[in-house]
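Q: Structure tokens for this one, please.
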Amino acid sequence: MTSTYEFGILGPLLVRHSGAPVHVGAAKLRMLLASLLVEADRVVTTDTLVHRLWGDTPPLHARNTLQNYVLRLRRALGSTADTGPVRTHPRGYLIETTPQTLDLRRFTSLVRLGRTALEQNAAERAAALLRQALELWRGDPLCDLPGDAFPELRLTLQEQHLTALELRIDADLAAGRSADVLPELRALVEAHPLREYFWTQRMLALYRCERQSEALECYRTVTALLIEELGITPGPALRDMHARLLSAAPDLGRLPSRTEAASSPKAPGRPTLPVEMTGFIGREAQLEQVRALLSTARLVTLTGVGGVGKTRLALRSAAQLAASYADGVHLADLAALTAPDLLDRAVAEALGLRDQSARPPAEAIVDGLRDRQLLLLLDNCEHVADAVATLVLRMLRAAPGLTVLATSRHRLGVPGEHILTVPCLTLPDPDALCDPQQPSERSESVRLLVQRAAASAPAFTITARNRAAVAQLCRRLDGIPLAIELAAVRLGTMTAEEMLERLDDRFRVLRSTGMPGTETRYQHTLRGVIDWSYTLCTPQERLLWVRLSVFSGGFDLSAAEAVCAGEGVERDEILDLLAALVHKSLVAVDSTGPRARYGMLETIRQYGLERLGELTRHTGLRIRHSAHYRAMTLRAGAEWFGPQEVDWLLRLREELPNLRTALDFCAAHPDHVGTAVAVDLARTRCWFFSSVLGEGRYWLERLLASPLALPPDLMVSALAMKVWIALCQGDNPAAEVFLAECRAQAAGPEGPPLAPLTFIEGAHALLVDGTSESTSRLAAAREQFLRDGRRGDAHMATMMWAMAEAFLGDPVSARAASREYTAEAEASGAQWARTWVRWCAGLVELRHGDPAASLTPLHDALARQSSFGDSWGPVWGVETLAWAVAETDRHTDAARLLGAAHRLRQDTGVALTGLRPFHDAHVAAVHRVRTALTPQEYTQAWGYGASENSVLLALRTGSNPHTEPRPGAGRAPHPRRNEDPRPA
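A: Here is the predicted structure, written as tokens:
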């Protein structure tokens, strides 16, 4: 990202590039940019952006429209996806900023520096820093956007603005400028009459200007206002200032700092937050989130799985915010409570209350809090959550100055509660860690491992040898801080590689030893932490947790109901039990897609699998799991080549981890289910769409190696799919062997349907032999599939037939086949099929018409496939665009596209050498381009294409048909379109 962009949201939306204003005029583009900026440097999901742009009534194809807006925004900013600040992410989009490029980040940084300077009694420096911060405000935040946009953010930012004003006035008062701030304070108390701290500052300023009577009148005025408007009396800070004015206290010459107020004797028995014994790693985003939430909410609960670091985050946040509360921060650690009845006394003790009367402790707590302004940190609430919820609700209703920060493995359920789920530490990018040029400690999890290992295993360092193992170790431990700290201890006695080998037994390996006298309920083991969560669940919740561990990579509600119901858990109970596990931070839910998606951290799942192994009937659970995903692939096969085609492809790709688990189980327990699943995944082109072609072949070969006798039609279909995948990989020798097996099986006495064999023989004739015989065979296969009611397979035969006519036929037959293919796809409503129709139309135009006219359909097909997340279509789309661009004499662009296409083939494992018509066209394009360019020019352009984002490069090139040819480059001779360019 270039550092010359500047963005502003503290006022009207502002964009500058290299100091010059950038006009972003369209309302939707401004809303899109603002949506990214308010969550700068974090991924904003596609669904969130769609909701912000269109609310509850998004347009048809909203995701495609959003993608178009992103392209327009990048164009307005004068940037590209690779070089500009707006970046694409698998889950959505984000905008990259720095403290120098976004005014909100500069404001936050300057306020933090100013606060620190004020606490260090550097009043002049503090005032200067805080003035710089306030000068960044150009008006109300995002005031040029609709009034209902970002309401909570606007309130939060306005509160931060007022807090910065208070701090700056504190600094001016500390610097002796009491008279200078009086006019400003008069305006502020008029604008914010219920904000007590402005009144406190005004009273002090008046007193210092020898206007004591006016200062005391201020107190009477604000007291009446508070009673009339809110029914409360002034808070401790205001009452304290009043008392000091009446007594002419000698310290009125200076304003007590907020830190002094928080540590004043007015909080008897106030406990001190525990000192951190180890370094605090990362969590900058979460600290900022806690600060923002506590600025507007009175109850914030940090939830998350055991060992994720909720307590450390809460303690660090409380320490940073202590100066904001006149009566400080009070910590009540509830971990040791053995019964809910002891809660009230534990909280009273934490608050320093020593009530000896016979009244209930809760009443004493309420009376003690009524006039105090403090932050109460309730740590480890999960095992007494109901009692905590009751007490917290009572305290908040009675004490307007109270704010509660709680940590719990599940929410408290109190009205007004704000939940912040504490994520695991950020994980390393395996590719980056394997690159010796990249910093090895960029991710939080690796930084924590290195820091803790420095104490327990001082000889440990990250080296070129163990970088990949360290990355995998942190990833397999899910970035859970407790697990990583325990792993760091083990690095004193084993290497990271050895630990990885034993990680399937992580609950034994990751236990802490050699710490006498520090036992807790967690027993210093990862198992102890998860055991504790297990005991907090009801018997039904435990049973569901264990059964859910059979899923890999997540699941939806229908899968949980189909697989986990029965024998103690009814189907209609699954949803409520899932919700309970979500609330207890054992299951995560992602509701941004069309279906809610649930998942567990691998550590939680492994624990469930261990418990599952203890059950006597777990095989039945795995059978139900396999049957569910067999039913899913069966339905996908039936609905393939229909309006839901893309949805099915995306869903099957999402379910690949579960499909692998089901296939693995079926391979170990041979039956027909596994082979049928693998065949349907190949028929629906899931292996292709998801760019895991080799895996599809692996499963077919493994399942077909079973001695189990399959139904003849399933066997022929499976063998045909093996041939098809081998052909697409360009592995002709294997394809020949598989084809012979398929023919032998089809010739058996059972006489199975011949449609799969006819199809694969036609595909072989096209892709290997390059003969016109392919067209008749593919046309025959199409009719046979239709006769058998296999509409999707019939369409695949139509596509290959149209492709054969494009490569081998004459202009009349090629265009006729293309028209029939188009009509069939349009009638089906299948969106992915329609992209191939556009590609085929471009191919026909390229080979039998005007190459320049082929660019539009080829570009259109590639753009649509890219918007679906298709990994297969672009392999051929970019290659074919290279041929078309070469035919239009844009030789440098063509060389770049040839390099880009090569990179895509490397990524997907495709080889053109075994695909004769594609290989011939490729050789012709390379010959044409090499003839027009010098070797150096060709190599340079080809290398550029191979190093860029292949699809984006092709889309840019294909959408710009008017590129100046290289001076002196004429039209180079090349083989005719139907001529074999290979040497005889």
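A few notes: Residues 285 and 844 are 53 Å apart (CA to CA). The two ends are 51 Å apart (CA to CA).
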